[in-house]
Amino acid sequence: MKKTTSSFFKTPAIAYEGPQSANALAFKHYNPDEVVDGKTMAEHMRFSIAYWHAFRGVGADPFGPGTIVRPWESGKDPVAVALKRMDAAFEFFQKIRAPFWCFHDRDIAPEGKSLAESNKNLDKLVAHAKELQKATGVKLLWGTANLFGNPRFMCGAATNPDAHVFAYAAAQIKKALEVTQELGGENYVFWGGREGYETLLNTNLKREQDHLAAMLRMAADYAKEIGFKGQFLIEPKPKEPTTHQYDFDCATCIGFLRTYGLEKIFKFNIETNHATLAGHTFQHEIEVAAAAGMLGSIDANTGNLLLGWDTDQFNTDVKELTLAMVSILKAGGLGTGGFNFDAKLRRPSIDAEDLFHAHIGGMDAYALAFKIARKILAEGKFEQFVKDRYASFDTGFGKDIEKKKTNFRELEKIALKLGEPTPKSGKQEYLENLLNTYLHG
Ligand code: XUL
Ligand code: CO
């Protein structure tokens, strides 16, 4: 990677020192330059930094204001501060060795007094981002529009009961698509923000879903019109901020997209904390998306299962990530997607250095999981077990069932002839122990 000139961080660039290193500010498992199967680890992992958490997060929660103060945040002119903040961000991207970043329109540029002024502010920051991308080699994984923060979106954007708000949101997505294209974004994300409802006493669910589909259709039409080639991604989330979010989980979204004939246009950006809020494991959501050929990208984080909300923490759970990685690798990887750290520092983690510790931990855990998952797949023990478990569908009447070559009359004859099936153990405990041999040697 090439270098920028800013120096807001005292921490030097993070180096790989290997598993034995005692240096907390070094990678133990993520060696960006290590070549695995003809590709560097940087190319395999495609790590990305989330601008909104790393550079707009201040540690605020519903009980108190921010705790995190950064030196680049000083100054009266919000555009000048935004430009400085972006210099700091690209310095960080380089030092943490992340090849990608992601942003919402309003993360990088302040909202103006009018939409036209907001667009003008955005243009200034996009021009700066373009220069910084060129100078550093850091690329844009995806862009998106913030259609949930401003009070105008309190009742949703595409699903707002007011067509005026819908039009405003459409204009914002139009601009966000243009700037994502300008910066060479490889994907564009739709997280449903406030697209849901609190009470059916004031809500026409069917019309709101129709409107959401109309917005997505128009976005796809516009992308085609301007020649934007990036992959469209939906990011499911079951609740928070609204009680009932329309994009509940991958299965719900697949049903929604197929209902409106949009399934060929979208893949999924799966977020760990959203999966668990929906009552699923991270791996479950990956498997559901992959089964539909719609696995796109990952928002890498985790939640606190003792709490019922989206805590967006850095994930250091190697077991959970190994299982996720097995499913991702089996599905053929993420294509144009990557692992975006949609994760934030805890409120008392106020040092700039904490940003490094947080991302080092996340990157190392994912890199280690990637290596373990590759070993698991190379040895193929789990895959063989699962294959054997379904072997009765590989031949005879089992095969006929899969090939749709049989019917109830024939199957009744077979059942009468064969009598009672022989029970076979699922061997879950054996398999859990086998998994531990990979995790703990
Ligand atoms: C919200 C969330 C968003 C999306 C992008 O829970 O995950 O930050 O990733 O809008
Ligand atoms: Co996210």
Explain what the structure shows.
46% of the residues lie in helices and 12% in strands. The chain is of the alpha/beta class and 441 residues long. It has an eight-stranded parallel barrel, surrounded by four helices. It has a two-stranded parallel sheet with strand order 1-2. A two-stranded antiparallel ribbon has the order 3-4. The longest helix is centred in the C-terminal third of the chain and has 28 residues, at 352-379. The two termini are 35 Å apart. Bound molecules: D-xylulose and cobalt (II) ion.
What's this, in brief?
The chain is α/β, with parallel strands linked by helices. Helices cover 46% and strands 12% of the residues.
Q: Layout of helices and strands, plus pairs?
A:
Layout: E1 15-16, E2 26-27, E3 35-36, E4 39-40, H1 41-45, E5 47-50, H2 51-56, H3 78-95, E6 100-104, H4 105-108, H5 115-136, E7 139-144, H6 163-182, E8 187-191, E9 196-197, H7 205-226, E10 231-235, E11 244-245, H8 250-259, E12 266-271, H9 272-277, H10 282-291, E13 295-299, H11 318-330, E14 339-341, H12 352-379, H13 381-389, H14 396-402, H15 408-418, H16 428-440
Parallel strand pairs: 1-2, 5-6, 5-14, 6-7, 7-8, 8-10, 10-12, 12-13, 13-14
Antiparallel strand pairs: 3-4, 9-11
The protein binds D-xylulose (XUL) and cobalt (II) ion.
